[in-house]
Amino acid sequence: MTSLAVLSPPLAPGWLPAAPPLLLPAMRHWLFRPGALTAGLRQVGGVRLRVLAEYADGAPPDEAQAMRIAPGSPVWVREVLMSVDGVDSVPARSLTPLTASHGAWQGMRRLSTRPLADMLYHDRTVIRSPFACRRLASPVPFHATALRALGAARPDPEAARVWARRSVFWRMGQPLLVAECFLPGFWTLTAGRAVPPLQPHQRTPGAR
């Protein structure tokens, strides 16, 4: 059994266990919306996913801390961008120890343009940590992913508005860190739309 200590790893600097009150209710909802994010996005409109990059790398300290592995440990990284009704809306960055990408999490290497939810929410042995959120900024690794999705070569006012969330999925004792952020175009697309009330966090994907 995975311990509560593992499910709630120490937060890396800048990551928050709850959304700041200054954020609009819609932002707080999406940052801590339980369940598969793609399912929620499909309630907004047609979702298309494209793969930005897949590669082996060394785990940056910020992400290594969340996964409880040593900084620089070999990891497999997958970066994607989801659009809603043709609007680039949600970049996502996922990584797991390189050995796990050939074992407990080997399915992430075969996803192609399918979302992670296709392998996470049909396995009741998978458990999920609580969410953490933050406004993205350098040197957080995911910040560079968001900039690429925005088509920005350097920080700009658009990038400063990007908030992200992340959590860690565990299977067979192996972590899979998943981070997602919401681009300004997503908030424009959803402006004025009602959102369901925020539900309590559920850590078991199979129960959502």
UniProtKB/TrEMBL annotation:
It comes from Achromobacter veterisilvae. Substrate binds at R78, L116, E180. It holds the Pfam family Chor_lyase. Coiled coil: none annotated. It comes from the Bacteria. It is an enzyme of class 4 (lyase). The keyword Methyltransferase does not apply. This is Probable chorismate pyruvate-lyase. GO terms for molecular function: chorismate lyase activity. Pathway: Cofactor biosynthesis; ubiquinone biosynthesis. It is found in: Cytoplasm. Its main location: cytoplasm. The lineage of its organism: Bacteria, Pseudomonadati, Pseudomonadota, Betaproteobacteria, Burkholderiales. Removes the pyruvyl group from chorismate, with concomitant aromatization of the ring, to provide 4-hydroxybenzoate (4HB) for the ubiquinone pathway. GO terms for cellular component: cytosol. Belongs to the UbiC family. InterPro entries: Chorismate--pyruvate_lyase, Chorismate_lyase_/UTRA_dom_sf. It catalyses: chorismate = 4-hydroxybenzoate + pyruvate. GO terms for biological process: pyruvate biosynthetic process; ubiquinone biosynthetic process. Keywords: Cytoplasm, Lyase, Pyruvate, Ubiquinone biosynthesis. Its EC number is 4.1.3.40.
